[in-house]
Amino acid sequence: MLLSPKSACAIVKDLTQNCALPLAPEVLFRTQLLRHHSHIVIGDVALRGYKHKARWTYDDREVRRAGHALAELPVDFDDLVEAHLPEYRDHDPQAWERSDWRRQLRSWMYDAAFHKSLRERRYGEDYRKIGKNGLPGTLTMDEFVQARNDMLHMHHIAGTKPRGLLSWSGEHWLLPRAYVELLDRWEPLDDDLANRARICSGCSTQGPRWAWRTPTTNGYVTLCPPCSGATYQSYEGHLHGVLYDSLRRTMRADDYLCRLCGQSRAFTWDHCHDHGYVRGPLCASCNTFEGKGVRFLERTGSVLHLLECSGCQARQTLPSRFHTEVIRAHLEQTERHGRCCNRPHAEELDHAHGIRRFVLHCHQNRWTRDVTTSEAADLLRAFIATALASRWT
Ligand SMILES: [Zn+2]
Ligand SMILES: [Zn+2]
Ligand SMILES: [Zn+2]
Ligand SMILES: [Zn+2]
Ligand SMILES: [Zn+2]
Predict the structure, then answer these.
(1) Cα–Cα distance for residue pair 268/116, rounded to 1 Å
(2) Which listed site, 4, 143, 194, 347, has its alpha carbon 20 to 30 Å from 122?
(3) Looking at this predicted complex, what is its ipTM?
(4) Directed axis angle between helix 5-15 and helix 60-71, to 10°?
């Protein structure tokens, strides 16, 4: 029997009533995640999504198996083992190329510490320094557990919520043994599904992770550009680090598929106007969309595309025309007038001598906030890190 996400979620909730782990069965509603490899993995059970009459469904048997497996997991909170979280790396694009729960947990800690340091405007201090409680910066355990509470993908791994389960021994991070074993079973399962989803179903060529996933009426399939009917080559990044002005006339962008959508024939070599480097071939529609600031930044793959400029990549920044939007969005999210809980509206008033002055207003109050060049650079780096992190789930 096929179940709607709503019934599937209700069944998992029902079966796991007595499960000791904090769970996130609502991940079954995030059907956009099925783009990755057509499954949502709960615990160590993969639930395949089936698209049926334009709606996503799950197989009743798999849903129940996942629920039972979690319900029967013998979690003993006195039987703790070391979690072996890796050291944090600021920027590691390879990291997102595989499923890795330990790295994920570590990056959440730094993400929370970083945002706290921004909120409290501790710009000079190093938020990466590990405190007595094992967390970076001045982060408390409660703050870590609560941080980004509105973003499910920053809280769940394998349909479980690990943040609150961690405890610090004074030297190591600990987790219940049965839970570590569960995540260690989840990891190769998820990785294997992701790798299988790289194989073109037409010709069996292996593509980059996620890139060839194509929506159809029956769900997602993996099709390389030739098999999907295109006759143009896909761009493999051979002009990375090449200046746009040094391109020869003979290098035609329209020999390639658009680097961003991978579907249409490109018409221009997109390049960074701040640093001059080629980012890749774009089709007309993606190129127009890129002019749209934040809306473009919200699109999957857009930040990675902008980082194709070797100048932006080396500095972990974005072209300057995106800066105001990133800062404005951050201020609206974090600034409040005293105890007023209204989200203010922010506008850039002035940009002189490296200081950007923003004016914020809620219903009655109006105030200004200055953002220095180094704050702006930090915000950009945080924005990039978050964009890269959310790409993963
Ligand atoms: Zn193919
Ligand atoms: Zn395109
Ligand atoms: Zn130009
Ligand atoms: Zn650039
Ligand atoms: Zn107010």
Answers:
(1) 41
(2) 347
(3) 0.63
(4) 30
